[in-house]
Design goal:
7-stranded mixed sheet, 7 strands, about 55% helix
Length: about 300
C-alpha cells in the first residue's frame, strides 16, 4: 500500500519506519504547509497524521480536494483543538468529510521504544470497524500489536487527556511528593478523564484499556514523557513558559489543558485535578498551594 505520514517529528518518523518494515511504500512528509503542498503524493491510499494539534486544521484543509474520497485517514496525534474543543478526528471529518474512513491509532507508545523494536500495544478505533481493521492490518507486526474498537470518541479523548494528568504528576514529582501522590493523581485523574469522556459519548471500557489507563501510566511515569518532564520543571520552580522551553519539544498537554478547561466548564463537568493544572499553567497559581486546596476539598464517596 502507498502511505503518506504527515509530521516528520519523532512519532511520525517512527511510524513511517514501522510501515516500511511492514512492506508498505511510505512517504514521510513535513507538516509545514508550504512544504506539504509541494510534496504530497496523491497516489497514497492511507494518510497518517502525526502533527501537532495546533497545526491540524491547517494541514487538513490543505488536503481538501486533493485526496480521493476513499483514502483512509489515521489520526496518530494526541490533542484537542483549542479554539473549538473538537477532537482531531472531528477536524478531519469537518475538513475532508466521510467520517467512516477516519480512524485513531493511540495507546502507550513512546517513539523511543517503538524505534528499538520493543513490544508495544495500541488501539485502532473508528466508527466503521472495517476501517479500524484496515489500520490494524496495515500497522500490526510481531512487535507492534494493534487491537480494534468502535469507540473513536473515547480512544481519542484518552490520548489527549492523559497528557494533562501527566503534567500534574510531573509537578508532583518536581515538588518531591513521592509515589503515593503520583498514584492518587493518576487514579483520580483517570476518573476525571472517564467522566468527561462519557459525557462526550465515549465508553468507560475504553478508559480502562490501552488507550486510557495504559497510556496514562506510561505518560505519567516514563522518562521519555515530555509532558511529565515539563511538569517536573514547574514543580522545581520554573515558570510554565520556561519549563516548556527547557523540554525543547512540543508539549501537547499544555494546549490540551486549556481546551479541557473550556470543555469541562461548558459541560458542567467536575474535573478538579485538570482545573488545578490549568490554574498553574495559565493563572500563575502556586503548585504547593494548589495541592493543599485539592487535598482539603469536601469529603466525597470515591464513586
Amino acid at each position: 500500500m502507498d502511505i503518506a505520514v504527515i509530521g516528520s517529528g519523532a512519532w511520525g518518523t517512527t511510524l513511517a519506519g514501522v510501515l516500511r518494515n511492514n512492506g508498505h511504500k511510505t512517504a514521510l512528509l513535513s507538516s509545514r504547509t508550504e512544504i506539504l503542498a509541494k510534496t504530497l503524493p496523491v497516489s497514497a491510499r492511507m494518510l497518517v497524521f502525526a502533527c501537532a494539534s495546533i497545526a491540524f486544521r491547517e494541514v487538513a484543509s490543505l488536503l481538501r480536494g486533493v485526496i480521493q474520497d476513499d483514502v483512509i485517514l489515521v489520526n496518530c496525534s494526541k490533542g484537542i483543538e483549542i479554539s473549538t474543543g473538537d477532537r482531531l478526528s472531528r477536524v478531519l471529518a469537518e475538513e475532508l468529510g466521510n467520517e467512516e474512513r477516519i480512524a485513531v491509532l493511540t495507546g502507550p507508545s513512546h517513539a523511543e521504544e517503538v524505534k528499538l523494536g520493543l513490544p508495544t500495544g495500541l488501539l485502532a478505533a473508528s466508527v466503521n470497524i472495517a476501517t479500524a481493521e484496515a489500520v490494524q492490518e496495515t500497522f500490526m507486526n510481531e512487535m507492534f500489536r494493534v487491537y480494534t474498537s468502535s469507540d473513536i470518541i473515547g480512544a481519542e479523548l484518552c490520548g489527549a487527556l492523559k497528557n494533562v494528568i501527566a503534567i500534574g504528576v510531573g509537578i508532583s514529582d518536581g515538588l518531591g511528593y513521592g509515589d503515593n501522590t503520583a498514584a492518587m493523581l493518576m487514579t483520580r485523574g483517570l476518573a476525571e478523564m472517564s467522566r468527561l469522556g462519557e459525557k462526550l459519548g465515549g465508553t468507560r471500557d475504553t478508559f480502562a484499556g490501552l488507550a486510557g489507563v495504559g497510556d496514562l501510566i506510561v505518560t505519567c511515569t516514563s522518562e521519555h514523557s515530555r509532558n511529565r518532564r515539563a511538569g517536573i520543571n514547574i514543580g522545581r520552580g520554573l515558570s510554565p513558559k520556561t519549563a516548556v522551553s527547557e523540554v525543547s519539544e512540543f508539549v501537547e498537554g499544555v494546549y490540551t489543558a486549556a481546551a479541557v478547561h473550556k470543555l469541562a466548564q461548558s459541560l458542567d463537568t467536575e474535573m478538579p485535578i485538570c482545573s488545578a493544572i490549568y490554574s498553574i499553567l495559565y493563572e500563575g497559581r502556586d503548585p504547593s498551594q494548589t495541592t493543599r486546596e485539592l487535598m482539603t476539598r469536601e469529603r466525597k464517596n470515591e464513586n
